[in-house]
Amino acid sequence: MSWKTTDIPDLTGKRAVVTGVTGGLGLHTAIELARHGAYLAVTARNPQKAEEAVARIQGDVPGATVDVVALDLADLADVKRAADEIAAYGKVDILVNNAGIMFPPKPSTTVDGYELQMGTNHLGHFALTAHLWPLLVTSHARIVSVSSNMHKATSGIDLRTFTTPEGSPRRYKRTQAYAESKVANLLFANELDRRVKAAGIDVVSVSAHPGYASTNITKTGPSVGGNSLQATGMHQVSKVIAQSAAAGAWPLLMAATDPSLKGGEYVGPGGPGQWRGRPKLVGMSRTARDTHLANALWAASESAAGVEFTV
After folding, report:
1. Whole-angstrom distance, CA of residue 185 vs CA of residue 79
2. Fewer CB near the last or first residue (10 Å), C or N of the chain?
3. Which strand ranges, in their side-by-side order, compose the sheet holding 266-269?
């Protein structure tokens, strides 16, 4: 039988943290978690959009408890501040590392000087998880890393990306940078799973991807630097041929809630090419399963984020 949102168990009393809820996957993931009883802490950079997201969640799920935590994943100091705010809740049962940026047309960097896509999609979430780690352990949490089918478009990661101010000397290619950030999500999820199992820690690390879903990521990333015409065109095409954001959230929700998942699994759409359809366990590239690269990425991420992440 195919997985449906009705398969989500009762989450009453659970605290779920979802990054990036001002639209798309994060919003629909938050709505379904709230619908099944979870208390929400949602993150966003834009306060006005955060208020609109809360209104949408509570409109769909009257009585839902939704707290907003301001978070800019492209600013490591702000990641630490947000993690301290989240830690005040006393527990986090589900952490969905969802927020991201895709295809800035020109080279762009985070506040700390790292390439924007890697710095936001991977390094910011790595740092957030590291800062929350003691709480995640005591909460016996489930951590979901959101990747992309595009992770298959790269056969490695240039770890020089994690140096500053030097960075990688390669010519910037937005699709390559995005693909590397997405394979980094999987390498991190898999390495975290290996480490928690080796340490005998009751934390579950899984990953998911939405297939081709119509979300604002096709507009916000390409519009960085003012390239709004290209961003509008890409977004309109996606709206026509992609599945809905609600359907794109299904793999994330299955990864976040299916009790049969014990760590290390990857969930994606079950249709042809994993573009759309009901979620199921899917495969990932050989690069994403490279344990040596995963270890090297972990060390590089600790150094870049300035945080020791000991499992």
Report:
1. 17
2. N
3. 66-70, 39-44, 15-19, 94-97, 142-146, 204-208, 266-269, 279-281
The token duo for 277 is 């359809």
Phi first, then psi, for residue 257 (nearest 5°) are: -130, -15
- Find the helix or strand (DSSP H, E) in which 17 lies: strand 15-19
Provide the residue type at 99 as one letter.
Answer: A
Residue 138, by phi and psi: left (phi above 0), alpha (psi -120 to 50) or beta?
alpha
Digit-coded pLDDT (tens) for 252-262: 999 999 999 99
Give the integer Cα–Cα distance in Å for 165 and 40: 37
Q: Which amino acid is it at 107?
A: P
Give the H/E segment covering residue 301: helix 291-305
Q: In the CATH hierarchy, which fold is given to the domain comprising 10-305?
A: Rossmann fold (3.40.50)
Q: Which amino acid is at 290?
A: D
Tokens representing residue 21 in the block: 């809820």
DSSP 8-state assignment for residue 242:
S
The answer to whether 76 touches 82, Cβ cutoff 8 Å, is no
H or E, element range at 77: helix 76-87
Domain ranges of the chain: 10-305
Which residues carry out catalysis? 147, 178, 182
Lowest mean pLDDT among 57-66, 221-230, 298-307: 221-230
Alpha carbon 205 to its chain centroid, in Å, reads 12
